[in-house]
Amino acid sequence: MLTTNNAPAEMSDQELENHIKSCAALLEQEMGDGNRTEALEWMQKMNDAIRLRSPAQVAKMEAERGLNTCFFHDQAGRDLPAMLKRQAA
């Protein structure tokens, strides 16, 4: 089985992205070698690392891909204070 370091809690965004890419490469290699169990372990590590992405990194990636928030999400954020105020009255 191939090994790499687990993602430390205090990685920079770029270091974390490199770790995610490394896990993906190891996952692909293990699948290619027929080692399904090891591949699933790398997939879990990759998924765990993806969940560690900072909100700023996620926003950056979404913007790079043109995945801005939708109108309804933005509108709900603007309308929420007024809605809560009406409910409290």
Total domains, how many?
Answer: 1
Total beta-strand segments: 0
SSE string: HHHH
Q: Which bin fits the share of residues in helices?
A: over 70%
Assembly status: single chain
Give start-end ranges of low-pLDDT stretches.
none
Strand coverage percent = under 5%
- Shape descriptor reads elongated
Compact overview of the structure:
This protein is mostly helical and 89 residues long. The chain is built from four helices and no strands. It has one domain.
Give descriptors for this structure.
mainly alpha, 4 helices, 0% strand
What does this structure look like?
72% of the residues lie in helices and 0% in strands. It is elongated, with a radius of gyration of 19 Å. The model has no long low-confidence stretch (mean pLDDT 86). It is mainly alpha-helical. It has one domain (13-88).
What is the topological layout?
Blueprint: H1 13-32, H2 36-51, H3 55-64, H4 71-88
Helix pairs in contact: 1-2
